[in-house]
Specification:
It is a single chain. The chain is of the alpha/beta class and about 400 residues long. The protein has helices spanning about 1-30, 105-110, 115-130, 135-150, 155-170, 175-190, 220-235, 250-260, 275-285, 305-320, 335-350, 370-375, 395-405; strands spanning about 210-215, 240-245, 265, 290-295, 325-330, 355-360, 380-385, 390-395. The chain has an eight-stranded mixed sheet, sandwiched between helices. Helix 11 links the parallel strand 5 (about 325-330) and strand 6. The longest helix has 29 residues, at about 1-30. The termini are far apart. It binds guanosine-5'-triphosphate and magnesium ion. The site of guanosine-5'-triphosphate has 21 residues, from helix 7. Magnesium ion (MG) binds near residues 220, 244, 250, 296 and 299.
Length: about 400
């Protein structure tokens, strides 16, 4: 009897437990549809119940929540630990740092970008030189070709004279001989022995300081950004100085470039003093032991004396930290001879140590490289061959001429 009683009790208990489970299961089903966890900040909110050791704390104010009130994670999210992250506390994903391409051989890689100069200058000259009879008219055409490509009057005359002489000595000419001859003479015109190293290292134990100047729209900010990438690719730490307070979006533009490679940008208020921002950027670079500080300046019309004075001031103020290692003048190759006039004015205000010729990809006037070097007595160190982040190449006369006349 006792045994039967015990069995009955056991059965009753079992049924009660089972129905309880069913109920709780039903309850679960009746819950409001689960929100996706990404929009559910309550999931990891502090628990309403105090923990051990928290007795001394002031009583918590949050309303207590029953199990039913807590939304469940969405079906597919269950088991995905990242999904339960609290979006309120969650840090935004760290911006992906890009690894820029190495600079070696960039000019060779980007040679197709010189197509327009190649067709009008390189191929044009080769075709003319291949004519059976190199009469006066042909030499004049050769001269015109060089002038049209912005080589400049004096260098053009020099080149034509040397070509005439060598063709005369050569007598009969094969296309290979002509090509080799033209190649040599064009390279000679570009000053193959000029030092084109961009000085990004200081002789002292401080960061190298590079300042980028030029007329508005020539590509200063773009070039500063591209250069930062090159330096980062070489394993250097870079600080950017947004000394262009003239234009609203200028600092943002530079900062965007910097963020892509993890370089910090020092900036100030719009309309602020560019010299003080440049000064601060170098100060910051020294403080954090950076390798290089790149200073982007405002685009200014070379005719505005006040603005040119300001540029001189930026330079002087930065030099309180020590001498600048490189002052790059950015020139837009498509502006041709007009760019040369600008170049001259800039050279008077700051001592340009190198030229960056941008937008060579969009012009047939590749000869401007020769003219601008002659004009300033300063080498072209870098060339811009497109708007892409790695479309800045160290200038190499040999590779440049090969790109023009084909090898
Ligand atoms: N095709 C081509 N476009 C370039 C090159 N370099 C710069 N650009 C473009 O030229 C435009 C102006 O470039 P920025 O770098 O803003 O010029 P900036 O000198 O800083 O201009 P300001 O700050 O206004 O003085 C942008 O659209 C660039 O993408 C280049 O080598 N080739
Ligand atoms: Mg700019």
């Amino acid at each position: 009897m006792e045994l039967i009683l015990a069995v009955v009790i056991a059965l009753v208990v079992a049924v009660a437990v089972t129905s309880g489970l069913v109920i709780s299961g039903r309850k679960k089903k009746q819950l409001p549809p689960a929100e996706p966890p990404s929009t559910t900040p309550t999931i990891t909110a502090p628990p309403a119940e105090p923990h051990v050791g928290e007795e001394a704390e002031t009583p918590r104010e949050e309303p207590r929540r029953t199990v039913e009130e807590v939304p469940l994670p969405a079906e597919e999210a269950v088991g995905t630990p990242v999904a339960v992250e609290d979006p309120v506390v969650a840090e935004p994903p760290a911006p992906e740092i890009e690894i820029p391409e190495p600079t070696a051989g960039r000019l060779v890689r980007l040679r197709a970008r010189l197509a327009r100069s190649q067709n009008s200058l390189g191929k044009g000259l080769l075709t003319l030189l291949s004519r059976e009879h190199l009469d006066e008219d042909t030499w004049e055409e050769i001269e015109d070709t060089l002038l049209t490509a912005d080589v400049g009057v004096a260098p053009t005359q020099e080149l034509v004279e040397r070509l005439r002489e060598r063709v005369r000595v050569l007598g009969t000419r094969t296309p290979e001989e002509l090509r080799a001859l033209l190649r040599e003479e064009l390279i000679a015109l570009l000053g193959p022995d000029l030092d084109r190293t961009v000085r990004t290292e200081s002789p002292a134990d401080v960061p190298g300081v590079v300042m980028v100047v030029g007329v508005n729209g020539t590509g200063k900010t773009t070039t500063t950004g591209k250069l930062a990438r090159v330096l980062v690719a070489d394993g250097k730490s870079v600080v950017l100085g947004a000394a262009d307070t003239f234009r609203a979006a200028a600092a943002d533009q530079l900062q965007t470039w910097g963020e892509r490679v993890g370089a910090r940008t020092i900036r100030g208020p719009e309309g602020g003093d560019p010299a003080s921002i440049a000064f601060d950027a170098v100060k910051e670079g020294i403080a954090e032991g950076a390798d290089v500080v790149l200073i982007d300046t405002a685009g200014r019309l070379h005719t505005k004396t006040g603005l040119m004075d300001e540029l001189g001031k930026v330079k002087r103020v930065v030099e309180k930290h020590g001498p600048l290692d490189e002052i790059l003048l950015v020139l837009d190759a498509t502006t041709g001879q007009n760019g040369l006039i600008q170049a001259r004015v800039f050279a008077e205000v700051v001592d340009i140590t190198g030229i960056v010729l941008t937008k060579l990809d969009g012009t047939a006037k590749g000869g401007i490289v020769v003219a601008v070097q002659r004009e300033l007595g300063v080498p072209v160190k870098l060339v811009g061959l497109g708007e892409g982040p790695d479309d800045l190449a160290p200038f190499e006369p040999g590779a440049f001429v090969d790109a023009l006349i084909g090898d």
